[in-house]
Design a protein that fits this description.
The chain is of the alpha+beta class. The strands form two sheets. Strands 1, 2, 3, 4, 5 and 6 form a six-stranded mixed sheet that branches. The radius of gyration is 27 Å and the shape is globular. The protein binds iron/sulfur cluster (SF4).
Length: 442
Amino acid sequence: MGYIRGEAREQVTMFPVTLDELIPADHVCRVIEAYVDRLPVARLGFERSEPAVTGRPGYDPRDLLKLYLYGYMNQVRSSRRLEAECQRNVEVMWLLARLRPDHKSIAEFRRLHGEAVTEAGAELVRFARSVGLVRGELVAVDGSKFRTVSSAQRVRERDAVKRYLEQLDAADEQDEWVIDPSAVAAALEKLKQDPEPEARFMRTTDGKRPAYNVQTAVDSEHGIIIAQQVTTEANDERSLLPMAQAAKEALGNPESLNVVADAGYSNGEQAEGCEQQGIAPHVPANRGVNNQGDGTQFAATEFEYDEKTDTFRCPAQQTLRRRQEQRDRKRVLYQAGAEVCGACPLKAQCTNTKQRYVYRHRHEAALQRMQQRATAEMMRLRRCVVEHPFAALKYHIFGHPRFLLRGVAGAQTEMSLATLVYNLKRMWKVMGGAALRAALAG
Ligand code: SF4
């Protein structure tokens, strides 16, 4: 028995196969091309959108955008690997008409065009609205952590240097130490060299790691991400209003909008802000919002409020009574008393100070309305909408949830590219390649 044999490499064919014949009509490359070709690149802020009249011609930004979209769609994010794909991948050869940009040109394009890529993503959402793929009736807001480029060790070292400088400051004020100026200069230099000063430890699925918190607003109709933002917020408590506003803007500012999120977004002041702008938040109310120890100690949710007695019960079953109304900070303060906390066996898990304080929002009415809207059915719907996008972004597009570019700006560029690709894939899945391509070209 023989083997199945391929063609002889040296064989000459009378009618050579063209690159175009190798790419099927409904292939995603054709969708990418149709999408990029309809973009008003100059208006969106892509540089070199017009060909140079004199000097060495540069690459058309459309070509490099196509390359990145193809790359992110296939978990190829590094500029060096994209350069290699240009030389060996038939689909990329088709997409770029056999251009072979070097990795420096590829990286430079991404470095320069963070905002333009974000705008291009907004343009795709507008298109999705125009073909009825985004309804804008219900939007789910959710956040997830993506690791920074900076390692835990680097961020720990940086934090240690910061603490050292703070201690020196304090000692200087009290005239306690004679400070060595060369040590201070060395510490300052070390801080200056930190390429990612925004990186900070956050709770991730792998424990505490340097990360950014990526916020998304997802339309419930087909799971299309209509707004996204990379933040340095360790939790979601302050992201309800900004994300709801971003979603509303992406939807063309409708008169009303329903936004659903989990209890981590509970924020009375922001709930009121949403209502004032015609946005109805559906969020389980989390009245005590003063978590301590950056998430390492008892969360405020672990303190149970009793409306009848207007007191809280803590994890040690002690009663925290109302002590003070802080009008300027829109909250009421509750405490058990220093002697009670001082004798508590759980104190280390609760507070680093003499006693634990718990606050209750003064925006109680807005919190209650928000709570009433957060029905079990609404929360079930929320889970269905938010489950898919982050799993797809992390494991199908990124490959692993870690950024390649440093700083919030770099992370934002990567997330804008990844979201764009996610939305293109969603639309491709819902409409089919040929129909989406035809609609984009129309
Ligand atoms: S430290 Fe105070 S508030 Fe915290 S669990 Fe103990 S008694 Fe309760």
